[in-house]
Structure formats: structure tokens, C-alpha cells
Amino acid sequence: MSVDERLTLERGLLLALLVVDTVLLALLEMFFLPLRIGVVPVPVTVLVGAVTTPWLVWTTAKLVRPGLSWVPLAVWVLVVFGVGLQGPGGDMLLIQDWRALLLLGASALPAAMVLGGGPRRTVGRRPGHG
Length: 130
What we know:
The chain is mostly helical.
């Protein structure tokens, strides 16, 4: 392990802060997923998840270390499934309709694309030098 690969105290604290942010955002996204205005469902937290989850993965890669950029996505998935399926008092918080699937797809898929490099992996490379 070289000096550049070690996780400093500052970066460790930053990673811990990003994990706490991930947990709080995942909880808020689940709690407000059933939001309705009258009889119309308004899954505004899907948009929040679609923006914040990939941003947390990207921020971890840039500020902490690229090798740890999977941590926010893994924590988000664990919180959503752990608390969503076995919530407080045994209640199921993850609602069983299209909004739950939309939340999972809109948050986890873009974050996984950021984690894997997605389309930007080939940007700036010449053909045959990949």
C-alpha cells in the first residue's frame, strides 16, 4: 500500500459524512415516496434520488478515493431495502407499486453508471487505444 492509497483521517471523516448523507437521503426518499396531492401521487423524491445518489458516488470518487466510490451506492441500497422492508415496528415502508420501482431505478441505475464510468469512459480516447 503506497502513501497515495492510504485513507487519511480527513478523507475518512469526509467518507463518513458522505455515508451519513446517504443514509439520511435514503430515509427521506422512502418516507416521502407515498406523497400525494389530493388523489394524485407526487413521487418528488424520485427526482431527489436521481440527482443525489449519483452525485454522492461521484463526490466520493473525486474527494475521497475512486476505489471507495461504491460505498454510497451500497449504503443507499442497504438502507432502502433494510428499512423499507423491515421498517420501524415491522412495518413495510417501501410501498408496493410503481413508485418504489421508479425510485430504485432512477436512483440506483444512474449511480451505478457513474460508478462504472458509463459513457464518459470512452470520451477523449482515440479509436484503438481503449
